[in-house]
Specification:
The protein is of the alpha/beta class. The protein has 8 helices and 6 strands. Bound molecules: farnesyl diphosphate. The site of farnesyl diphosphate has 20 residues, from helix 1, helix 2, strand 2 and helix 3.
């Protein structure tokens, strides 16, 4: 049993769930069955985060680049997402979990988008935890979209160029209102950010594990949190300065 300190929990955990394909290959089954097993790991991690009191969990479920995958795989991922929403809605409600999304959800298949909007709407008032799904999401695209919105608002006289700073810029991102991740986990032994939350992870603690996403367990999550809890987050300051200041965890 891995010990974690409930007083030093990351407020926001983000996960790049990688390795479904390799897990399937290892078990000599099709990639889609790997994704299906990956969806089970999603359930485990959502439950565990809710149970220990993590407030925000962002999962990279479908990147903008994933649209280039074979049509059959894209279809299967869409179906899996829809199935997940249908199956999990009751539990999300019972557990007080609000569902939000980041990314260009207008590109999702209409049926999936409808279901998503429905679940987002019906969980709107839940306040125990936010489950934030990154869907059709790309970090660079998010930043470009924010810049375009700012230019537009500047043209309409809604924002003055001198008002743009780190805080106001953040309000134009998909993640507006959501604190930056404290901990980013990537599974499957890849050491990349892959266009995920580029702006938001400036001071995020990174944790990489060899475990393939479908094999990722509660204990693996706790290991990542325990590793995070051993670190000193300095945000560019010295250790001495930190002692005089207080940061969220
Ligand atoms: C990366 O593995 C994973 C994805 C592209 C999709 C993630 C989707 C799920 C975990 C299941 C559905 C999600 C929800 C929220 C219900 P990969 O296919 O790139 O693996 P590989 O690198 O081993 O090929």
């Amino acid at each position: 049993m891995i010990k974690i300190d409930s007083n030093k929990l990351p407020r926001h955990i983000a996960i790049i769930m990688d390795g479904n394909g390799r897990w399937a290959q290892k078990h000599t089954i099709g990639r889609i069955r790997g994704h299906r097993k990956g969806a089970q790991a999603v359930r485990t991690v959502v439950r565990a985060c809710r149970e220990i009191g993590v407030k925000y969990l962002t999962l990279f479920a479908f990147s903008i680049e994933n649209w280039e995958r074979p049509e059959k795989e894209v279809q299967a991922l869409m179906l899996l997402l829809e199935e997940y929403l249908i199956k999990e809605i009751d539990e999300l409600q019972e557990q007080g979990i609000r569902l939000t999304t980041i990314g260009d959800i207008d590109r999702l298949h209409p049926q999936v988008r409808e279901k998503l909007l429905q679940v987002k709407e019906s969980t709107l008032k839940n306040d125990k935890m936010i489950l934030n799904l990154a869907l059709s999401y790309g970090g660079k695209d998010e930043i470009i979209r924010a810049v375009k919105k700012i230019i537009e608002e500047n043209k309409n006289g809604k924002i003055d160029i001198n008002e743009i700073n780190k805080e106001t810029f953040s309000n134009y991102l998909y993640t507006c209102g959501i604190p930056d991740p404290d901990l980013l986990i990537r599974t499957s032994g890849e050491y990349r950010i892959s266009n995920f939350m580029l702006w938001q992870t400036a001071y995020t603690e990174l944790y990489f594990t060899e475990v393939l996403w479908p094999d990722f367990t509660r204990d693996d999550l706790f290991k990542a949190i325990a590793s995070y809890q051993k670190r000193e987050r300095r945000f560019g300051l010295t250790s001495e300065q930190l002692k005089e200041k207080s940061f969220p965890n």
